[in-house]
Amino acid sequence: MEINKKGMDCLHFINGAYVSSQEPGTFDNINPASEEVIGQIEDGGKADVDLAVKAAKAAFDNGWKHSKISERAAILRKIGDLILERKDELAMLETMDTGKPLWLSTNVDIPRSAGSYHFYANFISTMGTEAYPMEVGAMNFVVRRPLGVVGMINPWNLPLLLLSAKLAPCLAMGNTVVLKPARWTPMTATLLGEICKEAGLPDGVINIVNGAGRSVGEAIAEHPDIRAIAFTGETSTGKSIMRAGAANLKRLSFELGGKNPNIIFADCDLDEVVETSLRSSFINQGAVCLCGSRIYVQRPIYEQFVQKFVARTRQQIVGDPLQPNTNVGALISKQHYERVLEYIELARQEGGIIETGGKRAEGQDRGYYVEPTIITGVDRNCRVVNEEIFGPVVTIQPFDTEEEVIQYANGTHYGLSASVWTKDSSRAFRVAQQIEAGLTWINTWFLRDPRTPYGGEKQSGIGRQGGMFSLDFYSEVSTICIKY
Ligand code: NAD
């Protein structure tokens, strides 16, 4: 792909080559930090998805399903290496697409993406399988075969990182893929086609179709030759994909929305919790699915926490993502920017007090910048406390007892993650066990071991990713029973 100073045009990548849509059409890719057009994106549709699935099916049947583990591991390792070699270029593209600070793309998004390929290269090279002996003189072996063609539908907030967390285990198990980047953030995913080819991935194993959710996304969700869908995005989109996939009973892995509680007891290390809350509230403009957007503080330290947290938040630098001292960049699109401001207005109508922020960031003529915003004075029934805003906006509410805060924490239909802050380890464990979340941190946040299960409870997801959990999803697990 040709990359220029502004960005790049994004074609589809089908059967090992970059191609235009069957029905010609493109849309503008806009840099949310400058509102400049940085490229044209193919506006794909059903015909492009059909071609991609055909290529993926042929690549699966013609060899990839029989590929050796050592071959797949070597290719995955090479993909990871090439991503690291091109780290600066990929980081710049990620920042131009998303508006996130360049230091974040460089230090988190891109290296963590590479890490997924390296991790699964090692994982499949050393993994064994289960065997269950029976006293009657029989042995049951568990075997795993690839599924076939897998569809992947991705969000805009961590484009290459989240895509890689799915793609690496999917390829590791010998599947082929048709994937769709978010329409707002196609550049790094599109470039991944070239990287995979250079790493030696056979043509047709990975296919990338650009376009809108309603066309490309729906065509993937409905396609009869796609066996499984790995989707990350909004809960409402997940429901629609589930309906579309029901026709041929597709296997589903869903990583959906969240409204994660950050529970702070009076015996916490206050300075540490203030610093971590800054990150867990506003990193990536508050658009990490694991961000803690509902902060609950025990009453004895409530005022002190609010005061310190507001003071530190006011020091956050909002603006040009290319500047190394920028803390908070631009929101992904004009639509999202307006939606976040609408939520802040709603908080005012619901009786909320805007402790800081609450408006467009000052000093920015162009770009979709919103100040980090802290809201107090809202109660548990307010929409801003229950609905995912996915922007730099958090609420803080006081609580008195453990029982009360557990009830608050579990009071939404989401259940993705939580963090609990206390020096009392018995309490920490007692509370964590009662929180309805796929992942609960104690005295930390965003610390992830790739071997552990990751996913959401309730309407935050279906299934778990990570280590063996991902490999189980991307494979048909069957039993061979031998009588001896
Ligand atoms: P989104 O649901 O709007 O879009 C995600 C993807 O789905 C995009 O590629 C989009 O084009 C596609 N899509 C849209 N409508 C579709 C349809 N009808 N059929 C098929 N595909 C369709 O989500 P988003 O705004 O890109 O991402 C933000 C959301 O993702 C937030 O809710 C966030 O919490 C969630 N998220 C969750 C996790 C997690 O691990 N649980 C991680 C990141 C983001």
UniProtKB/TrEMBL annotation:
PROSITE patterns: ALDEHYDE_DEHYDR_GLU
GO molecular function, one term: oxidoreductase activity, acting on the aldehyde or oxo group of donors, NAD or NADP as acceptor
UniProt xrefs under InterPro entries: Ald_DH/histidinol_DH, Ald_DH_C, Ald_DH_CS_GLU, Ald_DH_N, Aldehyde_DH_dom
Family: Belongs to the aldehyde dehydrogenase family.
Native organism: Paenibacillus foliorum
Top-rank taxon: Bacteria
UniProt name for this protein: Aldehyde dehydrogenase family protein
Keyword Transmembrane among record annotations: no
Keywords of the record: NAD, Oxidoreductase
